[in-house]
Amino acid sequence: MNTHNRTEIATLGEFGLIEHLTSGITPANKETLTGVGDDAAILQFGEDEEILVTTDLLMEGVHFDLTYVPLRHLGYKAAMVNISDIYAMNGTPKQITVSIALSKKFCIEDMEDFYEGLKLACKQHNVDIVGGDTSASLTGLAISITAIGCAKKGTVVKRNGAKETNLICVSGNLGAAYMGLQLLEREKIATAGKDMQPDFAGKEYILERQLKPEARKDIIEQLRKENITPTAMIDISDGLSSELMHICKQSKVGCRIYEEHIPIDYQTAIMAEEFNMNVMTCALNGGEDYELLFTVPIADHEKVASMKNVRLIGHIVSEDMGLAFITRDGTEMELRAQGWNQLKEE
Amino acid sequence: MNTHNRTEIATLGEFGLIEHLTSGITPANKETLTGVGDDAAILQFGEDEEILVTTDLLMEGVHFDLTYVPLRHLGYKAAMVNISDIYAMNGTPKQITVSIALSKKFCIEDMEDFYEGLKLACKQHNVDIVGGDTSASLTGLAISITAIGCAKKGTVVKRNGAKETNLICVSGNLGAAYMGLQLLEREKIATAGKDMQPDFAGKEYILERQLKPEARKDIIEQLRKENITPTAMIDISDGLSSELMHICKQSKVGCRIYEEHIPIDYQTAIMAEEFNMNVMTCALNGGEDYELLFTVPIADHEKVASMKNVRLIGHIVSEDMGLAFITRDGTEMELRAQGWNQLKEE
Q1: Is residue B2 in some structural domain?
Q2: Rounded to a whole number, what is the distance in Å from the CA of B63 to chain A's nearest CA?
Q3: Rounded to two decimals, what is the model's pTM?
Q4: Which residue of A has its CA nearest to B17?
Q5: Which of A211, A289, A298, B48 gives 20 to 30 Å between its CA and that of A261?
Q6: pLDDT of residue A316
Q7: Looking at chain B, which residue has its C-alpha nearest residue A56?
Q8: Chain B residues touching A45 at Cβ < 8 A
Q9: Of A152, A178, A194, which marks where a domain is finished?
């Protein structure tokens, strides 16, 4: 929290605060008729467009820890994860609404930082902030974001279209955001109450993956350029295993993915080694990478094989063959979701 | 909370819980292509439609108190207040998304009760539940609802269209929900730790206004039937004064409203008397009535005067004349918002 430059929120009040935070936000999309300032935002999409809506609720202490997450990063990430959900439908994000509930420990500068992050993420993806409100919270910060997007009729990609023989692809690399979180947690404990700064040299990449995830607009653009329409797609928020299980369950199919093809960055591997953790477990179950997981017809093999930042990790099989992970030595293991199931974790 | 029939949420987990809660929810609107179960809901509106989106974040201890609000009522109200925002734009509500964050004190039956209320409100207004998620919270319950609606192009009513000589109208009556809240608070204190039930005889109406508010679909329908398009409209969530100030500020006008025309139910008046409160202050500043406040051209005078459940309370004047409340004895008082500004209240 901001301590040196602190203006109490009470000096502005609820309406004042939201006016202050949203002043200077002007719609960039022609689909945005009216943004902040009425009972609802007014949007309009052409006759050939389908509209996508996704929403997320983030709670302090559960989804984020302000002892090591700066509010600017939090704003950026909160917007990004919702934008990612729109891409995961093969859509184009257009607008977000933002509601925040905050306790008295926060000041106006804190919320400005948060909005700065929000605005940066929105700018990068050409998204308008079209509404939201602020209210009080007894303990900590709660953030609710709704993203709205559109897609040409018939181009939306759902989770339920994967077919036998389809190839399973994933963008970027996996497990890095999770290892970044482990590192932050370790340093939080190590530096607690001490006048020392954590040393993150050589670990910048995994930290950035945790604190500043990027929605994969570039992958969606590449897919369109190559004229590839995935049969199923999802973004990886809860871990590869968990997301693949969603696709298989909804598509009524099984899958085979291969250890040797799972993309892992070297910083992730080094960090896992340091923590004495199995790096493959982290790649399969670590959440918050926000990479895209998708399936394509086998006819698109050459195209996806030549795509940048996309890796073929396996293929779809019939439902009765189940979901399996094949290790380097050829052992078949049943795929399980150990992911970020917060309610079960408690 | 449910104590006699309690199934821990951990037995289902996050995905299990949301599947359980949303099973049996099937879209009723043709505009809903896909509801719960993917990264985003997929909606589609015709070429002549504008789309409305509104969102709300409710925090336990700030927006609701579970010691006297049953979860079923809370679900009903949470949906209703967002539906009300769509009507306040002269739109038709079509879909909602629901995110909840809950601490371990809640069990599955609690969430079932909450969803029962949600579903009832949605059914009454022909609204589809198209998405949402559940996650953990360290303390208490947080609820985030986004409502989506549509309106024929050019028929949306904003806050900024009020013009000099326009008539100011309000539906239903005011202050009842606020008095209901006062009563619940009093009985909470009176019965705390004691084995006694509060006595609500003769006060059912104000309690219902607080616990089970109704979005004024009927007023919107009447307006359409009478071919009246308000010049400005808002729903009363923060109190008449506060909402009227929003309209005047955004429309750059002033107003005159008259004490003798402010609609107040007799139960509200009796309750205020019992509490030794000024009933007019309650009617002007008490929130959560979810009545509609709107302005119409003076040419519509006869039509609105004959509308059921609508009261003419004043008229719009030029900006430099300011915002005033005229008492029965003709005294002009400046209108002030003392409403539900939770951040300032703290």
Answers
A1: no
A2: 9
A3: 0.90
A4: A343
A5: A211
A6: 98
A7: B99
A8: 45, 51
A9: A152
